[in-house]
Amino acid sequence: CGRGPGGCRGGRTDMALRCAASLAAGRQPRGPRREGAMRWSSAAKPSAVKINEKASREKILTLESMNPQVKAVEYAVRGPIVLKAGEIEKELRKGIKKPFTEVIKANIGDAHAMGQRPITFLRQVVALCTYPNLLDSPSFPEDAKKRARRILQGCGGNSLGSYTASQGINCIREDVASYIERRDGGVPADPDNIYLTTGASDGISAILKILISGGGKSRTGVMIPIPQYPLYSAAISELDAIQVNYYLDEENCWALNVNELRRALNEAKAYCNPKVLCIINPGNPTGQVQNRKCIEDVIHFAWEEKLFLLADEVYQDNVYSEGCQFHSFKKILYEMGPEYYNNVELASFHSTSKGYMGECGYRGGYMEVINLHPEIKGQLVKLLSVRLCPPVSGQAAMDIVVNPPVPGEESYAQFIKEKESVLNNLANKAKLTEDMFNKIPGIHCNPLQGAMYAFPRIFIPPKAIEEAKAHKMAPDMFYCMKLLEETGICVVPGSGFGQREGTYHFRMTILPPVEKLKILLEKVKDFHIKFLEKYA
């Protein structure tokens, strides 16, 4: 290769020296250039850089090459109807005329976005944790400062900006355990079984990840209620598990029937290995509150069939109907005796996002997992450690949910007033929504016993169903899209949650302020009557 004393390397050294000399003289160095090769110069003017679109190579990531499990994921709460609502909002801002002046997003349970005021005490504690200099301010009550100091002492460097243990700050897990014991009338809770999470969704996804295994007919089946919250179907699709539907009884106020659970389980055994049973109580989107007998029957069924129970209890504070009461699965399990309590594996979930708090953006939550195999406990902590830790401000917010002011503390009176105001307001709006829907021909709404949503059944005429098919839409998607385009009201079609074939629904949150909710319901009424007339 014509090497000199330094061979090729010597040639490169000479070239480097020449380049250095050229730069010192203020000239651009010139080196050997391969025939046809293009050189990029950062000094080149943008106009001199021409992009040949035809020469662009194929993308590595395409719809064909992407993870098929991710492509299969659907999340109706933020699906096509919400994207369309966003487009309409942009058009309104540009001055494009519509039959309405605003889009009312009733598609999601985002309390503060709908105008609900934050709980003062919770925000005070999080503010103190975020900016500890405020601990010297006389503007903040001592009970808030006391909680903030305790949380900060549990943080590395006494800062909310530090990582925490993957399972969460220890003193907050202790507070969660104490809360569970108070809630459940003395049923013991171990902080070591508590895992702080990024909202309840994070905990649910983590438990499903660790539960799902096998292939073919031995692939894990996950039993979920229909209608369901789309997090479940989305997580099942992403993890390539098998979704096993059991139907809630709409004719009986969305009750859960064990005979239906047994039917679903027995049919699923032909094509998968059902080993997980998910319960949402109070229900989302259906709003039912399960009674004690129902919960006992479900626990017995899980014990008998060796199913791992997931109890989604994020709406435990949202119970409105007389005669209804929230019972935690943990409490009933304990009261059923040691044969059940020492054997049934149960993960239960709570969150800062719902209840009277409505703090969705903090992404605070926890899960309690009992009767987990000791070796699996280690595997779960390992899995959670991959995401390092939940948001620390969300952990602080969760602490105030489980450790609020108590009688005798200076913030108690204001706290209880704000909490009861939110819950009473929600109860009134639940009754208002139910009553107004049931006055509309072709709409039926079961009692809203709890949670934050109505899930009314709507009659869609055959002519409208045919037009929906022509547009390649589900009939209730067609209905909801028309509702959005003509009234500006954004709700989620029931097909996004699952429903019995031949029935149609939509989910709507009851969170808007009362006056806006009344306007919304009147608009739905007028739209539905015109819709029936048009397609009769």
UniProtKB/TrEMBL annotation:
**Listed cofactors:** pyridoxal 5'-phosphate
Give the pathway annotation.
Amino-acid degradation; L-alanine degradation via transaminase pathway; pyruvate from L-alanine: step 1/1
User: What is the uppermost EC class here?
Assistant: transferase
Tell me the ranges covered by the Aminotransferase class I/classII large domain, including all copies: 124-523
Q: Name one GO cellular component term.
A: cytoplasm
Q: Name the Enzyme Commission number(s) assigned to this protein.
A: 2.6.1.2
Q: Which UniProt keywords apply?
A: Aminotransferase, Pyridoxal phosphate, Transferase
Q: Which GO terms describe its biological process?
A: L-alanine catabolic process
Entry superkingdom: Eukaryota
A GO molecular-function descriptor? L-alanine:2-oxoglutarate aminotransferase activity
Reactions catalysed, as given in the entry: L-alanine + 2-oxoglutarate = pyruvate + L-glutamate
Q: Report the sequence similarity comment from the record.
A: Belongs to the class-I pyridoxal-phosphate-dependent aminotransferase family. Alanine aminotransferase subfamily.
PANTHER family according to UniProt = ALANINE AMINOTRANSFERASE (PTHR11751), ALANINE AMINOTRANSFERASE 2 (PTHR11751:SF311)
Q: What does this protein do?
A: Catalyzes the reversible transamination between alanine and 2-oxoglutarate to form pyruvate and glutamate.
Subunit structure, as described in the record: Homodimer.
Q: List the protein's name.
A: alanine transaminase
Native organism: Sylvia borin
Q: Which gene encodes it?
A: Gpt2
